Amino acid sequence: MYNMEEKNESVAQEEKNLYKSNNPLKFWWFVVKRSLDFKTRSPRKEFWMFYLGNIIVFVILLTLLTLVLHALKVAEYTELIAVYSTFVMIWRIVLLLPTLSLQTRRFHDVNKSGWLTVLFFACTFSLGFISSAFEHNYIKGENFTVLVLIALLCLAIDIWLFIVLGFVKGTNDSNKYGPRTL
């Protein structure tokens, strides 16, 4: 067994090699392995490459699922919708922690509180809930106006936070969340 300094050196070397790479799958796996890291920083490249890797892995798994369903001769529309919906729900649950930790580290990189991740998550969840209510015509009368205003506010907050996460460059020097990443 090695000590903590050797472990930190190993992680730093892995990070250095990773940031020289343009392989989204390596970034995806790196973020998944750092799912419990809510204290350090992550640069924009890690953010974007994780999401690109996420799309690649999702499409591969979805293709494999489709091939299995085809081999099992599952063709009824309701069965297909149930299987695909379940797959997407499981995928989102599995990637919830890595995504939240990455978003927190991105906020740290721009010297913002990681608690903005909770706001981002709450607004995104609210938008999904409100859109579902609109879709099923559960909203009538004056509640409609209030929910439209809430939806617009949540959308504006989500857009602002997404711009911060994806496009704002991190601080050049060390900040209260740690040293600058490579």
Automatic annotation (TrEMBL):
The chain's coiled-coil residues are none
Any stretches that span the bilayer, and where are they? 48-69, 81-102, 114-134, 146-168
Keywords, in A-Z order:
Membrane, Transmembrane, Transmembrane helix
What Pfam families does its record include? DUF805
InterPro entries the UniProt entry points to: DUF805
Q: Name one GO cellular component term.
A: plasma membrane
Q: Does the keyword Transmembrane helix apply?
A: yes
**The protein's name in its UniProt record:** Integral membrane protein
Organism name: Desulfurella amilsii
